[in-house]
Amino acid sequence: MLAALFGSTSWADEKGGAARVPLLPKYREECAACHISYPPGMLPAASWQRIMATLPRHYGTDASLDPATVSALAGWLSANASTSGRRSEPPPEDRITRSAWFVREHREVSPAIWKLPGVKSASNCAACHTQADQGDFNERNVRYPR
């Protein structure tokens, strides 16, 4: 029964590392309509709970969903959130791009890259991570747009 709920996979935290978890189709449908389906292991549960509780003011956009959908997505995000290691601390404003681990991982990216028309912001993971839509952020798959 649960297998029918899952679509593709994404990364979640597992003992400080990352493990693939199936993406809920509803998560992909609702969240990926505006941005990639960020893997739940990129943030701790507390961050996901705040994000889901403030969808009417979702980073400057009204991303409201019906209560049943919010409950299902919030439960899944919290269950698959980061629980240990470098991703377990809530970042400022619950923004993945402001987390210490994200800043550390991207410290070698030139400021000029972030300004490219095909990138525009650090939250546009798919601009450089060619497999981001599949939850794969491996450096082997990074290609900077021209």
Automatic annotation (TrEMBL):
Pfam families: DHC (PF09626)
SUPFAM superfamilies, per database record: Multiheme cytochromes
Top-level division of the source organism's lineage: Bacteria
Protein name, UniProt field: Diheme cytochrome c
Organism: Variovorax ureilyticus
Organism ancestry: Bacteria, Pseudomonadati, Pseudomonadota, Betaproteobacteria, Burkholderiales
